[in-house]
Design a protein that fits this description.
The complex is a heterodimer. By secondary structure, chain A is mainly α. Chain A is built from six helices and two strands. Classes of the chains: A mainly alpha, B alpha+beta.
Chain lengths: 105, 276
């Protein structure tokens, strides 16, 4: 736990949002209220730091719903540890971002 | 959809900031996300593509940077870049700087030739300051004369193509105000630095194919200079030879070009380093 990187409040909020099931870039934006110019570079940075990993949605799932496939994000094990540490640092984090049912992708 | 062209244009312009090898996936990601954004927020959403593309450019790996930057490895690409700079400088001189000069320079190609000759003369005067970085390779006999001739022509072309760029700098300073004091000194320093670049670039090229040498490796240690040579060994990506550059310039160790025979060719990938 001591090795877990210390995140800024913004990054911690985004990580919490992904953990809460807001797995797409735009839904993270909606939940956190952050602009796209902050969210997307931060997602890339967290992916580079192996806190999250991205994956493209299956084409069949998107085709069935007649929409383009989206890129979604999931927490890695390191990301979960970092989020745990961030929750201790920012006790109100869980209340800021509401948990929702994880979508089936 | 109404107004969609604005968002698509914004994304397309922002995509120019993204590294070319990641541009397609980056664009696809933003376009699919855009599909889900309500129209009233779409334009503001697309503006976020600029910081994202910039982040991607700044944070790509070193290897990617080398692949996508402006390549001056090949002699043709080096001359093409210099020619493009020279053409741009000539355009700026004729259409932007010349109308502002008092008295105006003589018009036409003849006037350009005259001022270029003046610039070339100034470069020749300042050449000794640039030549202090020159280190002639010790093993000159290994390079046949046609290659030496090609190398000389390449050097002359680089110096000639640099003249309009330097002249443009000179005229822009003259257009801003009278030359003198620190501005004049700064210009002379810029000319010397430009000429030094020409010389050092020449030194770091393979004498056979004129491509920039790659894979520099440090050999030896500075603390053992008595019995051992230490310096940098660079390799021609086509396998023509190795250039040994000593860190300490002395009578017995300097820059030495080592030609490699055909038996070495298997070690070098055919067409490696071809980035025209």
């Amino acid at each position: 736990m001591a090795d877990a990187p210390r995140l800024s409040h913004t990054s911690a909020m985004m990580l919490q949002a992904i953990a809460a099931g807001h797995i797409y870039g735009y839904t993270v934006m909606e939940v956190t209220g952050l602009p796209s110019g902050t969210v997307y570079p931060a997602l890339r940075r967290m992916e580079r730091d192996a806190l999250i990993r991205s994956q493209w949605e299956r084409q069949s799932v998107a085709d069935a719903e007649q929409r383009p496939p989206r890129k979604y994000y999931k927490l890695t094990r390191a990301g979960e540890k970092t989020l745990e540490a961030s929750r201790k640092r920012y006790p109100l984090l869980a209340k800021l971002v509401a948990t929702e049912e994880v979508e089936d992708v | 959809m109404k107004g969609q062209w604005l968002q698509r244009t914004t994304l397309r312009v922002a995509s120019l900031l993204a590294p070319s090898d990641q541009r397609t996936e980056w664009m696809e990601e933003w376009q699919t996300e855009l599909w889900y954004i309500p129209q009233c927020h779409a334009t503001r959403f697309c503006l976020g593509a600029f910081p994202d593309a910039l982040w991607l450019r700044r944070n790509r790996s070193e290897g990617d940077r080398k692949r996508t930057g402006i390549r001056l490895d090949s002699p043709i690409s080096c001359l093409a870049v210099l020619a493009a700079c020279a053409a741009l400088s000539i355009f700026l001189m004729f259409y932007v700087l010349a109308p502002r000069l008092e008295p105006p320079p003589p018009p036409g190609a003849r006037g350009l030739a005259n001022v270029s000759m003046g610039m070339l003369l100034l470069s020749c005067l300042l050449m000794p300051a640039a030549l202090c970085v020159w280190r002639a390779p010790a093993d000159r006999r290994a390079v046949p004369w046609p290659n030496r001739l090609r190398r000389t022509i390449f050097l002359v072309l680089k110096i000639v193509l640099l003249q309009p760029v330097l002249l443009c700098g000179f005229l822009s300073q003259a257009a801003l105000g009278p030359l003198g004091g620190f501005i004049g000194l700064g210009f002379n320093a810029a000319v010397i630095l430009a000429l030094r670049w020409v010389i050092t670039d020449q030194q770091h090229r393979c004498p056979v194919c004129l491509r920039l040498l790659s894979s520099p490796v440090v050999i030896g240690t500075p603390s053992r200079t008595f019995l051992e040579w230490y310096g940098t060994e660079s390799t021609c990506s086509r396998g023509h030879g190795l250039l040994h550059t000593s860190e300490i310039w002395s009578s017995y160790s300097g820059q030495q070009w080592l030609c490699l025979g055909d038996s070495w060719s298997a070690l070098f990938v055919k067409g490696a380093g071809r980035h025209l």
